[in-house]
Amino acid sequence: MSTDTPGIDPLEALRAPRDPACDVFLTGPVFLDIIFTGLDSAPVRGTESWARGMGSSPGGVANMATALARLGLRTALAAAFGDDHYGEYCWDALEQGEGIDLSMSHTVPGWHSPVTVSMAYEGERTMVSHGHEAPAPAPVAGTSPGAARTTGTTAGAAAPVFPQCPPRARAAVASLAPGRSEPWVATAARDGALVFGDVGWDETGRWDLDALPDLAHCEAFLPNAEEAMRYTRTDCPRAAAHALAERVPLAVVTLGAEGAYAVDGRSGTAAAVPAIEVETLDPTGAGDVFVAGFVTGTLADWPLADRLAFAGLTAALSVQEFGGSLSAPGWAEIAAWWQLIRTCDRQDPAALERYAFLDDLLPTTARVWPLRRAVPTIGFRQ
User: What is the bridge-based pairing of β-strands 115-121 and 124-130?
Assistant: First the structure.
């Protein structure tokens, strides 16, 4: 984390000398996100639409990596970065701005960064993306430390550390896809990492849990309501969560404006937490922020309801800012929200009690600092 942020370590009481140096490991593509907000409606063919707001920020897997790092987790990311200004900006924003460990990442010479244009309107978003799959880093022996950013290797190494050998970590976040298995997931789980499985829309239309081979290695599975019901052939998100809990230890189903519902398959415990009502500026990356909040609470060994409440809170704070990665809240923003909400008139006592666990986590005064935010262009000099 940046040295300007409050020094809150949610795992401080649990750390031991022989614990992994990495709290959470993840991998995936990094995009440059260009976000347009303030659109009154969807763009119409043959017309020009003007947006009232715009932001640029690292996207893709960077959304979740940043959200994890801003919550104080020691985060490591293995990703390919384009050999262009976009890639340089994303690398520096993540490594220098957020303190994310990129030692397993690499820059690909001559490869341009993937780009996503996101248009937010009516509480939703439409995205257009362009990019090409990055080539795997070639094994290079005897690489000097200064060249590690380009080759993805360390000094004297005969091959990249990842994906042959993921780092030992407390947790890992895996993006599950039908028919695809990532060998590093099984290795991470075997080495003691709790694997949190995220998932996207099944373009095959089969919605078959058996087509997600890495689900067998997951500690938790976090689909949205529509995905959960399709995978379980149910017509109720809560029924879907209970069905999923027969396949994974923790099933978490996000319900959009209705909050989230989770079932602990080991104990049978279930928890439901309503969403926090906020005015949405840009929902880009909110799902990633939710997962990061839930991972944080799980590693900190909080009760299931507290994990859900915290995940929902972080996601709600994120949608009030531009962009995906740089909209993720830090502890100072969480503390500021908690102080503010307790001074508002006519607060529901039960709602306040739901977040009372924050009292033991947050500083008595919320020290505000300037988080790095998405800006219209990435070319400004400090």
Answer: antiparallel
Residue 40: per-residue pLDDT: 85
Residue listed under structure tokens 């969560």: 241
The single-letter code of the amino acid at 306 is D
- Alpha-carbon span 184 to 154, nearest angstrom: 19
- Can you tell me the distance from the alpha carbon of 146 to that of 294, in angstroms, rounded to the nearest whole number? 36
Distance CA 89, CA 80 (A): 13
DSSP state for residue 343 in the 8-state scheme: T
| 3-state SS assignment for residue 293 | helix
* 46 burial level (CB within 10 Å; 0-12, 13-18, 19+): exposed
| Span 336-378, pLDDT tens digits | 899 888 888 777 788 889 999 998 888 655 444 456 676 666 6
What is the C-alpha separation between 76 and 24, in angstroms, rounded?
6
Strand pairing of 30-37 and 53-60?
Answer: antiparallel
CA distance 128 to 242: 35
The whole-angstrom separation of Cα 179 and Cα 216 is 13
What is the rounded radius of gyration, in angstroms, for the C-alpha atoms of the chain?
20
Question: Cα–Cα distances in Å, from 134 out to 96, 163, 177, 239?
Answer: 23, 14, 18, 40
Structure tokens at 81: 């970065």
Amino acid code (one letter) for 119: M
